[in-house]
Amino acid sequence: MRGVALLLFLVLSFAKHSLASDALSTPAADPRISIHEGFVDEKTCASCHADQAAAFSKSHHAKAMALADDETVRGDFDNSRFEHDGVVTTFTRRDGRFFVNTEGADGGEGEFEVKYTFAYEPLQQYLVEIGGGRLQALDIAWDTVRRQWFWLGNGTPAKPGSTYHWTGPFYRWNRTCIDCHSTDPQAKFQPQTNEYKSTYVATSIGCQSCHGPGAKHVASARSGNASSSMQDTSLPKVDAGMCFACHARRTRLLDGYQPGKPFLDYFSPALLRPDLYFPDGQIRDEVFEYGSFQQSKMARAGVTCLDCHRPHDAGLKAEGNALCTQCHTETKPERFVKQDPSGLFDTPAHTRHQASSTGAQCANCHMPERTYMKVDPRRDHSFVIPRPDLSATLGTPNACTTCHVDRTNDWAAEKMDKWYGTQWRKRASIAHAFTGAANGDGAAVEALRDLVGDQTQAGIVRGSAIAAMSGTGGADITADIQTAATDADPLVRLGAAEAAGNIPPEQRLDAIGKLLGDQTRAVRVAAANVLAGTPPHLFGDQQVNFEAAVADLRAYVEANADVAETQSNYGFFLFARQRTAEAEAAFRRAISLDSTLEGMRINLAEFYRATGQNDRSEQTYAEAIGMAPERADLRYGHALSLVRKQALAEAITELAEAVRLDPQNSRYKTTLAVALDSAGRTGEALDRLDGWAAGGGADVIGLALQYSLKLRRLPEALRHAENLARLRPEDQQISGLIGKLKQAINGK
Predict the structure, then answer these.
(1) Which phi and psi (to 5°) does residue 199 adopt?
(2) Rounded-to-5 percentages of helix, strand, coil across the chain
(3) Is the pLDDT assigned to residue 613 strictly greater than 90?
(4) What's the pLDDT band for 7 if we cut at 50, 70, 90?
(5) Is 689 buried (19+), middle (13-18) or exposed (0-12) by CB count in 10 A?
(6) What integer best gives the mean pLDDT of the chain?
(7) In this structure, are residues 704 and 717 in contact, taking their beta carbons and an 8 Å threshold?
(8) CA 80, CA 148: separation in Å to the nearest integer?
């Protein structure tokens, strides 16, 4: 590239007239632009569709990513300084270029050139190149509203070079961000060299991001068939899948998604997990719009993104409540056959707030905002009805107290009682069922079962319910999974496939075997993963479908060749198929992709344990602890590996560390006590258990009782037995033991 630049400079130097003014107005060429097969230069679109291109140029989509220059960079690079947690970062510019001086991967201070801007408003990030084709997103961003720098992280800053340091895999554009900020981006990860050769058709989102490859369309138009180009060129119809490809919390299954292709063949969306959504389905983590919108009555009625959002500038089609009253009118709109959204809603009689006030805005009550990336408020698209009563009992948010921050949930509920009576409190909600599931309450199974069978519920709710059922334990839900696997909705079938991973292996094939031939790739991949451990001879006539589904799974692994977690999970799949050499290679490949992610080493260590390689298991755990000495689970795993090596004294030391680091974990405590007993230190074990028993569960108290009896410390045994009886009042054996202990003690 330097030679090309020098040649260009020499040519310009000998030009007969000055090009200085032209050079200032002509943006530099982006070296990552490559016109992929079937695509055209984005400028070609604007030559015919000027009005649409002009509207699009004003959108945030058009400014999703750009070469860094004086027009695109919004942050303060005039020798500004920002400090957080002892890390000092300075921002400067020189010769039309932008530089950041900050902590690098080696922990030392370094200077990095900003190559691209990333996003536009309300924050802008900056991409720098650190070698190997890697573009990293700086974790210090510019707040475009407050006009100040801020740190995107939370808590203690990550160690330099680690996963969540700005130089690590989490902030890698090629891996984490590439799908959605450019036109037809291709990561082109090179596994042999661990490098990227990423390209895209246009630096930012462009026409072909939403309309698909334009080469045939352009050829048809130039041939004089412009009037019929939609039919002649198979230019796909723009649909909601095009939006959801980016506006979803999802896993990429296959490269090459283009508008018009089935969303679930290229992506597997996250279901309503408790770490992502509140129990009533409201957004918790950064999930974008797909998962919430799928829950809504609007989605089930056929409403799409483009009913509310203008397609080119991405603005709203109407201002304020007029957006909602497009459909929620006094007279039922003809387009809705089964649903009736009619009524008088834009009135104080409904809103209970003064007309045109903040509280009278439909979106503020039914699409409450939650802030992500510290400065970016986004609206919930599940269109919930405020339920302050659930907020009081289940901790879910509601729009009332989100706005009236000085008021309580009880106050809001009482207000609603006065306005609407108390019947609103009886409105059906998914919240109780999913709260029970999140708490591991077996009693929630029946409520979840009702949700799965309720055809009026959204597919994502029903699919999430069957997945949640499998995590509650206790009840046999194999028949429920088998039924869900035949559901017409692919999200329910996806939930069934995921749920099957929590039932006994010998029951899985009967429950979801048919899903191996499902018409939806996301379902097939999930089913193949769950059925990995099924002996080949049991597949019967499903063997062909299994092999085809495994091919889909391999394509998913290849599409995520630079993601450590994907490679490690594939290692478990291979191990279940008894392909141990390939499994070990996958586990090691995961570590090579992210050597600081401790979980990858845990997986390798457990693989070694399962294959009888105890020395290597212990060594791998020790390596992981060297990187993260404060992780209790690593200490515990290491302790067990030491036990297998019969190094009991060292194991006890590690177990004590695990208990110190996670003092609430009863498993760590009981394992330490058992190890002490095995070492002949039963008295010490009992002393520790005595100290833990006050706040401990039945397992801690039961073990304390056992060791009290072993040491003949009968008064202590009686105390522990009585405590255990309070936890297990129906246990007659404990009652009998208490009587015998009292007799023995009084007999003395």
Answers:
(1) -140, 165
(2) 50, 10, 40
(3) yes
(4) very low
(5) buried
(6) 92
(7) no
(8) 10
Q: Return the minimum-mean-pLDDT range out of 74-83, 510-519, 620-629.
A: 620-629
What length does the chain have? 748
β-strands 148-151, 140-143 pairing = antiparallel
**Looking at the DSSP assignment, which residues form a beta bridge with residue 88?**
83
Q: Secondary structure of 203-256 in the HEC alphabet? A: CCCCHHHHHCCCHHHHHHHHHHHHHHHHHHHCCCCCCHHHHHCCCCCEEECCCC
Please report, as a single letter, which amino acid is at residue 53.
A
Instruction: Count the Cβ atoms, other than its own, within 10 Å of residue 409.
Output: 20
Strands in 50-196 per DSSP E: 65-67, 80-84, 87-94, 97-103, 109-118, 123-131, 134-137, 140-143, 148-151, 189-190, 195-196
Beta strands in 566-711 (DSSP E): none
**Number of CB atoms found within 10 A of residue 350's CB:** 15
Q: What is the rounded distance in angstroms from the CA atom of residue 275 to the CA atom of residue 553? A: 25
Q: What is the pTM (predicted TM-score) of this model?
A: 0.90
**Burial of 613 per CB tally in 10 Å (0-12, 13-18, 19+):** middle
Half-sphere exposure of 712 (CA within 13 A, CB side): 2
Q: Which residue has the tokens 């095995």?
A: 678
Give the tokens for residue 3.
């030679």
pLDDT-derived band at 438, boundaries 50, 70, 90 = very high
In the structure encoding, which two tokens stand for residue 562, read together? 């630079």
Site of tokens 């530089």? 99
Structure token pair of residue 296 = 């809504």
CA distance 606 to 608: 5
Cβ density class 447-475: b for 16+ within 10 Å, e for less: bbbebbeeeebbbbbbbbbbbbbbbbeeb
Residue with tokens 């509650």: 472
**In this predicted model, what pLDDT tens digit does every residue of 454-476 receive, in sequence order?**
999 999 999 999 999 998 877 79
Is 528:522 a contact under the CB 8 Å cutoff?
no
Kindly report the CA angle at 389 between 387 and 393, in degrees rounded to 5? 120
Amino acid letter for position 78: D
pLDDT at 601 over 90: yes
Q: Which residues pair with 251 in a beta bridge?
A: 268
**Rounded Cα distance, 390 and 392, in Å:** 5
- DSSP lists the bridge partners of residue 656 as none
Give the separation between CA 342 and CA 719, rounded to whole angstroms.
66
Task: For 285-317, give the secondary structure using H, E and C.
Answer: CCCCCHHHHCCCHHHHHCCCHHHCECCCCCCEC
For the residues 335-346, what does the mean pLDDT come to? Answer: 91
What pairs with residue 268 in β-bridges? 251
| Residue appearing with tokens 């998962």 | 291
Q: What is the pLDDT of residues 354-389, one digit of tens each?
A: 999 999 999 999 999 999 999 999 999 999 999 999
Contact 496, 468 (CB under 8 A): no
SS3 sequence of 59-83: CCHHHCEEECCCCCCCCCCCCEEEE
Look at strands 80-84 and 376-379 and give their pairing: unpaired
Q: What is the residue whose two structure tokens read 């602890």?
A: 625
Please report the pLDDT score of residue 225 as a whole number. 66
Strand partners, 103: 109
Q: Give the CA distances from residue 286 to residues 280, 384, 702, in Å, rounded to whole numbers and listed in that order.
A: 16, 18, 42
Tokens of 415: 């207000």
Closest CA to 40 of 184, 151, 166, 159: 184
The CA distance from 544 to 715, in Å, is: 66
